[in-house]
Amino acid sequence: MLNIDEPTQTQPKLSLFKLGFRPFFLLGAMFSLMAITIWGGFFFGHIQFSPHGDPIWWHGHEMVFGFVIAIIAGFLLTAVQNWTGQPGVKGKSLMILVLVWMLPRVLLLNKEWVSLEVVMAIDLAFAPLTALLMARSVLKVKQWRNFAFVPILLMLMLVNAMSYYGLLTNDPALTKTALHSAILLMVTVVALIGGRVIPFFTERATQWQRSPNIVWLEIITFISLIFLILAVLFQQPLVIQISAGIAGIILLIRWSRWGGRHTAGVPLLWSLHVSYFFIPLGLLLIATGENFSAGLHGITLGGLGGMILAMMARVSLGHTGRNLTPPKIVTIAFALIVLATVFRILAGLMMSYYLPLLEAAIVCWMLSFAIFIYHYTPILLRARVDGKPG
User: Which of 22, 202, 197 is nearest to 98 (CA)?
Assistant: First the structure.
């Protein structure tokens, strides 16, 4: 793992702002726990809640454009330092970016505090600012392979704008289209990153030896995801089903080549493999046309939420100079996020048991992220144990 040597005096005094993964992993995980707690409390009638838009819009928007995008930003702004050899964003610049992310999360909670237009203006700045900071490092070394994340971040800004516009014009169909498109863009990010790191991590930690990537399989993977995103944007139900089926099969074939069967005894590995599996599973459920919600939540809870939890657990250890051995209870957190996903999928497929299954999924999600927060907060707040910067 590459580390950039910098003079001690140039390093931020607060360890939390020494590299992008620290604040975004910690605050993103905390926000996820808070957001699901509020959503569950509202849905089951325990609390009153009056956010901008309505609680349903807020739940979908904030889990995607609040939680997931924060973790993606934290990962990319950390990984780009390794990829390019350029120092990552830190200190005051990182503080400002975190503030741009955090303000909308707070202001959306109550529609009486400030107008939606003000919140929207701040929120829409986050993705392009992240893209700019990433592009700056990539362009310096002309590393075009990693430039692909920049247009994806800009497209996320556009679909976020679409979501706000749908809310302002009272067009729920548009807000739903924007949300679904954003989820699939984030699946594309996970597919790009997962295809690099999951087989690499598996080869390094097991006796398995990976085979070279099949070029046509990689190309078809992303072509199929692009077609699916376009089908969702233009709301073509039959094309959505066909594209989801093709993408699901291709992603499943790709995943099957990454040595998952060799990872049973390594929690930081099997958690990645199992979580990634929920993406093609969710796409294939969507392809059936029977229950779009079940497939979508398989992707969001398992594919995105599970991958986030597993990657945060690993990256937080590696980039703070620690051994890649998480506390044993973190393995329980990985299992809980899998259970949460299974319960949420079943809730969509077994409507007579919808409420208890949904409640079980919410509780499992809350417990899994609470475990992460409890055990990783000290790690993310303290300097690297090896004395290196970052």
Answer: 22
